Amino acid sequence: LQKAPTACVLCAGTSDLPVAEEAAVTLELADYQVTRLYDVGVAGIHRLLRNQHVLHASDVAICVAGMDGALPGVVGGLTDVPVIAVPTSVGYGAAFSGLAPLLTMLNACSPGVGVVNIDNGFGAAVLAGAKLPSILSSSCMISHSYLLFLGINCSSYPPATSLINCV
Predict the structure, then answer these.
(1) Cβ distance 99 to 89 under 8 Å?
(2) Where exactly are the structural domains of the chain?
(3) Mind listing the pLDDT tens digit for each residue in 69-123?
(4) pTM for this one?
(5) Cα(56)–Cα(46) distance, rounded to whole angstroms?
(6) How would DSSP label each residue in 53-107?
(7) Would you identify the CATH topology of the domain 6-130?
């Protein structure tokens, strides 16, 4: 019996929850075991440090953060699993609708940190290894023509008759 892949989805603050949940639910639809660590930003680093064992037990970590975007760099320094950073558009002052955390994450010096675009929780989950065919076959039907429109090779997907919103 093969062990299900595991992921840890972290978010720095509660305003990052919608993007973090987008990633977590997408991974769950792809049969990942997901552990959520929410409100563990660097301003409350003790909450993150208290849960390091969860990071080390995961196959991948997705870090969602707005404002200064420092969480993925810290997580990358604490663990050796791949870290996918997701900047969010939340914040005030000089956050520039997610540009400031995006630039912080792109400049993180921790090894193994990759970055997706602003508010792209779904993209982070797909990058983490959630394969689109398993999402489609287990949770929704989508038309063959729509997959072709997206530029996806449809030969490996089951035929479907209706188009619904998957996530």
Answers:
(1) no
(2) 6-130, 132-167
(3) 999 999 999 999 999 999 999 977 777 899 999 999 999 999 899 999 999 999 9
(4) 0.77
(5) 16
(6) HHHHH-SEEEEEE-TT--HHHHHHHH-SS-EEEEE-S--SSS-GGGHHHHHHHHT
(7) Rossmann fold (3.40.50)
